[in-house]
Amino acid sequence: MITTAHRLNSVAEYYFSSKLREVRQLIAQGKPIINMGIGSPDLAPDASVIQAIQRAMSEPSAHQYQSYQGLPELRIAMAQFYQKHFSVALNSDSEILPLMGSKEGIMHISMAFLNPGDQVLIPNPGYPTYASVTQLVGAEPIFYDLLPERNWQPDFEALEKLDSSKIKLIWISYPHMPTGTPADLDLLARWVALAKKHNALLVNDNPYSFVLNPRPTSLLQVQGAEGICLELNSLSKTFNMAGWRVGMVLGNADLIQAVLQVKSNFDSGMFYGVQKGAIAALNLDNTWFEEQDKIYQKRRALMLKIVEKLGCKTRADEVGLFIWAQLPDGVLDAEKFIDEILYSRHIFVAPGTVFGSNGQGYIRFSLCVDETKITEALSRFKEEL
């Protein structure tokens, strides 16, 4: 009998991987399921992006192995994007590494900097992959609380008192997922100061900056971030290119080199046509963001009517691609609540517990749903739950 590696004992199958099987089974049974749980943009990339990948197909090098560091012109486009939108100057040759989606970057960074027994500070609630990857490489996740009574902000005094002898890496994500909490530069500067105190690598996962967020920020804007900070970013949500798998990690050249040392052993470069499409996306002007926000604003307004029908509550300052909603008073079990909606109304939303214990009592709606589908979902609430 072939046994699995011990590391698999530390992680479970990703929630959405298993739950969506259940949803697909209901669809196969003829149930008219409306999926409001997944942050996979349903909108198309700009026409110029599609045209760029189509043109690339006839170029001589289109079907060959590509550089592990990506096309020079892709890295230049990424550098120009950061200069234009964040006023951050980066060396495209040494301080930017294209990734096949930022999710793989979480693994590459963890493998590059963590040893078994190292500790990693991880937000609760937060993206589940931070913890699972930490455990897969044999490090120890240390969860820091983000709580509603603090407006989902960290308790820096408590974090400063932690024993820093084993802390090697700190994960943050702003705008925060799943709560939609934005960050200003003062908040990011406090994180940089904490990372210096603990002599830890600070990584900001930043894929939601340009969705319903009037003030995009980057960790790399903070004075003193040089040498101890990395930032992950992605074209998935910003440019509706989730399935294309294009991301990037940015920061100090030595840190980027360490990530490349891992990455170069995992793939043989990003498909040429995808890179050409990514370049076209990164060169879009602000009209693109404005038009996307108009669509998401309409969807959010409609979705909030569903939130109201359910008796849930939200905050006015949420940004990003999701609505983070508190369950009605007296209702605590998020998973039971979403299953009742799934089986009675055939609507799937994500339970907050997917993102950590502090997500209990909350559910998350995705705005990646067409207005007609949201309207149809609303029609299913003629009778109160």
Quick overview:
The protein has 385 residues and is α/β, with parallel strands linked by helices.
Describe what this molecule looks like in 3D.
This protein is an alpha/beta fold and 385 residues long. It has twelve helices and twelve strands. It has helices at 15-28, 47-56, 72-86, 102-113, 128-136, 156-160, 185-198, 253-263, 272-282, 286-309, 334-345, 371-379, and strands at 34-35, 96-99, 119-124, 140-145, 167-172, 201-205, 229-234, 247-251, 322-326, 347-348, 350-351, 362-366. The chain has a seven-stranded mixed β-sheet, sandwiched between helices. The protein has a three-stranded antiparallel β-sheet with strand order 9-12-11. α4 (102-113) runs parallel beside α5 (128-136) and α4 (102-113) packs across α8. The protein is globular, with a radius of gyration of 21 Å. The termini are far apart.
Helix content: 25-40%
Distance between the termini: 50 Å
- Overall average pLDDT: 93
Order of helices and strands: HEHHEHEHEHEHEEEHHHEHEEEH
Q: Briefly note the structural class of the backbone.
A: alpha/beta
Number of strands: 12
The poorly predicted ranges are none
| Major sheet: arrangement of strands | 2-8-7-6-5-3-4
Q: Cα-atom Rg, whole angstroms?
A: 21 Å
Largest sheet: 7 strands, mixed
The coarse overall form would be globular
Instruction: Tally the helices.
Output: 12
Strand content: 5-15%
